[in-house]
Amino acid sequence: MQRTLFLRLWIMVFLHYFVWGAWYAAMATYLDKTLHFKGGQIGLAYGTTAVGALVSPFIVGILADRFFATQRILACLHLLGAGLLFLVSTLQDFGQFYPALLAYTVTYMAGHGLTNALTLHHSKNPAKEFPLVMVMASVGWIVAGLLVSWLKLEQSAGMFQLAAAAALLMSVYSLTLPHTPPKGVNAPISLGTLLGFDALKLMRDRSFATFMICSFLICVPLSFYFSWMSVFLAELKVEHAAAKMTLGQVSDVVFLLLLPLLLPRIGVKGVLLVGIAAWAVRFGLFAAFAGHPDLLSLMFLGICVHGMCYDFIFVMGRMYVDKHAREDIRAAAQGLHGVVTLGAGMFIGTWLSGVVGEHYNKRGDTHSWQEIWMIPAAMSAVLIVVFALLFKERNEASAN
Known about the structure:
two-stranded antiparallel sheet
């Protein structure tokens, strides 16, 4: 891949993930401390990204595979998203806030599959080049988190306005991206194609189906981190929480660079297994920190394993999907992966995390954090065994 193309893709990924990082990590603190939403409502708010992942990727994936250039769809989605984000920043009643945020996340989550598909389309060696491009996702989150803390927006609707400005910029920039035409434009079109069923056929492959099921299951416990981490740090009086949480994205960069080196040595199964184990370790560290808040090293260590937690599950997953899907259905296949993980898995996980957080809410202003963190830690530990026993890695790629 040429350096200029790398730069163009880096800016795309940076802007796309900056938009998400500007509001997603700190939103729980704003909803809990400023708007005084209940735990279940906070869980539902975080579940909007899951609903967006369920609704949007198949539809937009089909459009990108069959009808419209990927970069133009991205531009339209981020333009609409910028307006919706600004609307969200003006709403304080949950009955209005929730549907507006839900409408926004439908537009945003579709962009994940599109940015992945666009990057992979222009990669000559996806196994090496895709992780290098995705480094900028972490950088986008880091810059967004630092800016939110610097502007003191952790408990302010200003985080949504910052994200709206970035989304508007991303919309304009998308029009400058390399032309990525629909690959299946001349292929026969059937009802199954229009509904995205071609991607579902991949589930007939036992190894692919096992991978999808396990990817779904790990997303249930990991949702606890995104739903409650900022509130956890706020209640334990950790200042500049958004900035400190960006250490996780710093580790993203490190492990993304390590991924191409580890993959040939330990394989897909090894990478995914380490990623699942990292979640169990991380939640255990947070539970230990809750019992000993003077030991900040436990909290920092728990944040810094984020690279293994995220990259070894999601980035590796996207690469695995790209390897097993035919060229003409790759965007839809990426959408299927998003539906299973960021959609169904995160929806159930965010709902459960909200219920658990509300159950362990003390006097309405503090939480029993040790009990909260031990629940996803136990779920992750069980999944280590399940995945190790059931997943059978195949050496050859399947295009069926």
